[in-house]
Amino acid sequence: MLQISAANHNFHSSDLTFADENSLQKMARKCRGDILRMTTLAGCGHPGGAMSSVDLLITLYACARVNSTQPADMERDRIIVSHGHTSAGVYSVLGNFGFFPIDEAIAHFRQAGSPYEGHVEHGLPGVEWSSGNLGQGLSAGCGMAVASLVHDLRNHVFVLMGDGEQQKGQISEARRFAVKYGLTHLTCVVDLNQLQISGSIRHVMPQNIRANFESDGWRVLEIDGHNFQEIYRAFHEAVHDRDHCVAIISRTVMGKDVSFMENVCKWHGQALPADLFAQAIAELEQVNDLDRYRQLRHLGTEHLTIRPRPPFQPDIATGGSFLYTPDKLTDNRSAWGKALAEITRQNLERESATPIAVFDCDLTGSVKTDGFAEINPRNFFQSGVMEHHTAVAAGALSTQDVLVFWADFGVFGVDEVYNQLRINDINETNLKLVCTHLGVDVGEDGKTHHCIDYLGLLHNLYHFKTIIPADPNQTDRAVRWLMRQPGNIFLGMGRSKCTVITKPDGSPFFDEHYTFHYGKADILREGADISVITMGAMAHHAVNVADTLAAEGIGAGVYNFSCAKQMDLDTLSRACQTGLVITYEDHNVHTGLGTMVADLLCRHGLAVKLHKMGIQDYVTSGEPKDLLTAVGLDEKTLNLTIRRMIEQYAKSVKETSDLEKTVKLAKNI
Amino acid sequence: MLQISAANHNFHSSDLTFADENSLQKMARKCRGDILRMTTLAGCGHPGGAMSSVDLLITLYACARVNSTQPADMERDRIIVSHGHTSAGVYSVLGNFGFFPIDEAIAHFRQAGSPYEGHVEHGLPGVEWSSGNLGQGLSAGCGMAVASLVHDLRNHVFVLMGDGEQQKGQISEARRFAVKYGLTHLTCVVDLNQLQISGSIRHVMPQNIRANFESDGWRVLEIDGHNFQEIYRAFHEAVHDRDHCVAIISRTVMGKDVSFMENVCKWHGQALPADLFAQAIAELEQVNDLDRYRQLRHLGTEHLTIRPRPPFQPDIATGGSFLYTPDKLTDNRSAWGKALAEITRQNLERESATPIAVFDCDLTGSVKTDGFAEINPRNFFQSGVMEHHTAVAAGALSTQDVLVFWADFGVFGVDEVYNQLRINDINETNLKLVCTHLGVDVGEDGKTHHCIDYLGLLHNLYHFKTIIPADPNQTDRAVRWLMRQPGNIFLGMGRSKCTVITKPDGSPFFDEHYTFHYGKADILREGADISVITMGAMAHHAVNVADTLAAEGIGAGVYNFSCAKQMDLDTLSRACQTGLVITYEDHNVHTGLGTMVADLLCRHGLAVKLHKMGIQDYVTSGEPKDLLTAVGLDEKTLNLTIRRMIEQYAKSVKETSDLEKTVKLAKNI
Fold it and tell me: Residue B360 and residue A198: Cβ atoms within 8 Å?
């Protein structure tokens, strides 16, 4: 294994020793051979870029503060590879540096069930962030650099990126964020091999990368990315510059060191066939040992380990709760903001408390994070109108033992950044995403701002939990619950003030004895004739209607499913006993609560008559109450719908009951 | 109505005449009053930015080539307002310029059912693009500027933007695209009023807007955005500069011309209460006529018109079809590419043919648009790794009588740009979105690249059609069909080569007599015991299994629902007659075909035993066939599942049949 002299560790000395330079060169040759082994064995992959980036990677892993025996050490430097398709390069370096057995990486590259995936995945020691979709790595780096501020670490964060991906706008967002927050311990390296899939970057999309970085206030160094001394000196310069974020633009050669691969675009995303491999490995003066690896590959991947992130257990005191009384309207977002502020205050001086950080995208007052910003301004990150960056930065920070909230409007926090949330979910982040302004309850801002698809979108993300509380009291208790949870959790709210849900006796339903349990539905009203399944700000409308009907002797049960993604099957079965179910939601009727209920009913063979009330098309601006009326989600329409369903059902019940009687009769005979 | 002298029309003369300057100033005062009328009447809105932008808007609408009597004239200049929250400003100008009655706009601003929405919407004459979510306007402008190239128009495109939204990365993508394609007839104006919702832009997110534009090769002019002569001269300069894309940075004052509103951040997103309105309107030397408008507002919005976009009817000859024979494996994407190329060739010289344009994001070879690029390079737009921009530019172009295709991998064409697609859908675009690399069929590129949620995502977009053809023949025919359709259509495909689906006699199922009908399902195999509902690349696996089982006397029907969003209810009912239904898809099991089927079954009371086969969690890299096995979607597992379900059902059928006999007996008695 490669040993580097103390002088070059952590970029201490300003130059690379001659001996170290020699060792790195030797290692580079070995790694290039391994890149070819992996890709040819798998029959696919991206050898070209891996071979242009590998000298940068080797220098980094050799000289930065990383350690193969303690890959999760909190004080370590963080190295993020944004152009994840260079995975063969990353694995070759990590494997040869002892993070895992190199033979394993070669043999099982891109094999089903293997951690050595096509794009780098965090399930491997040494890999900090799963990438693949380009342009997100610098944002992840910002998140990890913020972790250094929050935890007061003295480490450095390096982000290695491709040149093609510089075209992604999200990178400019990350650059601005880094400068605003003085993340001078963040360095990025651009592998400028001048080629992307479709050819020269100058032809695909002309760009002045240097000017782009400088226009956002970064210092730019340019180097030969295959000259170890230059690489080292640039890193040294960057690490010791505490006044600037530094970008190192590294001129490299795609397919470097194999004559017929150099600067040939084709090898960006294609593996060498066996004959060319033989030729290439000979050029690299290595033995052609592919057969041995082929045999290893045949053993399969069952013995390999994919390491999940260590579990995150936030230590947060959430004592007490706030009881909202029915005499006053409160919006759920104020309840969230109040609980956040109160809990922040409780934990600010607690030594063992997990630090809390909050990201905002220019909507502090509306999403109610102003209380937090006042109490803990140091951990409040105002990201401006840069949601793509924020989603990733917040996600990355949440993997670093920080309890991270990002609050935004629904259309920005979910719709605009769906893919970033997906990549977060794949990265097993612990993001608490709080979205206000859901539904047509947003009102006058109109259809571009009506977030009526959040549930349908988040339903695609396997590990995201969703909570849509019914009133301020449930919101308060849900916030206290999620403060202590690992994983990705979405807390969703409308904009308007809403009534506190009460019991039939007029006291708060979610009272001082109530504790939030994820996945548990609430029976807000019992009713034997029909069941209304709802959530969020629609719950109090359903309760109002049920109470009106109850006075006329019609029993409409009201069920609050605040955790739509994990339905309470017991309560659902109970709701189904009426035989008539209405789902009632301020959400796209095709993808929301109603569809989730239908899915469950179908799968569990619960036969009922189901009627879905939801939004059928994009809606105009308007006052929320007018919009609810316009789309047929007002209380009057719910009332009428209930009556009509009961009437229609009465007929069919009569027929069924006639049949049942006949059956009974027949059986008796 | 304002009349401008001929010299200043279309920015002909280099200066504004004194008389015109005076008229514009008078108009500005009137418009500012109207902005306050609208917002105060509605009790909400964004007066501050509307008042800082309004002088820019007035100059534009007065002097550009736009005409209130012919708002849809093809030769017109296009004016796009990216910061759509300044709607009151836009409506005040359009109304006072005769695009619609100003009194109507004032009275019904932000009222439910009104076209005068909170953010500008294209349902109004003079509004080219619905905006609201920031950072997208310049991309839309690029799309419209491309239309000028495609149609060989001599018009100009103006995009007005806010300063806060400059933080969005997508804008940098649009800048690069504009320079690459020499869109020098595109001018953007940044309203630099220095304030965004949370305060000064310098505090929220420091940014050097000028340097950002210049770093991407734009020419930048800086002006006083309230000095009509300066505004005019800058536009004149920009319109006549045919060497550069020009950005005009306009220093303005939020809340301009009302003393207590100027530079006060609060009035960004808040309307004046009645008392302050009275004070403000007096300062503007206008009468307080709010009561009159209040009365008009009470009349409601039913008499108002929202104008849909004029229907797009592409004139494309799609004659002939290509028949793929079962002796050769072909991937659906090659079939799409071949059909596209062939049809392009057919229409290239046809005088009346609608022009076809194709956008690509650095994946030409993989998404098979290389044929088109060769035949019609002038209409092929290589957008690089800039998906957010591309989604919007392609969408905007598709509203300009061009048949627009954007081809990309699923995770980039859907996941990454979901919100851009949503805004396109709201804009009634006619985008043909072609995504290859769907499902775990993507294989070795791993979980970040497995697009297993496209259907679940697109299901949220009300007007998007989806087509997932089963084999190359159906792909060929679907492409020919969609070439002649308006609206947004998604065509989805896997990566792998797949078998041509055959009839039981071995001939192609989708043969020379087959025509694609949107919403019609295909009965690939009849079967009385169980029904398998599937789509796309899974169809041939289902057919294989059905054929194997048929040989053993088990009747498994195979139903191809290529149009999942518009289910063929007749065929579904028929499939349900077996009592046993399996949905079988290379897609997230929670949000795909299975869930859509469940939803329909539930709503239409079709009682069957449903089993959903799909993907339960993110999947690793690997060869597609290994991944299908790993997730239990291989043919063997389908075969076993069918057998197990039939066995289990046999028992319950027996019980049911006993009961039925009893009933029959009883009835006879």
Answer: yes
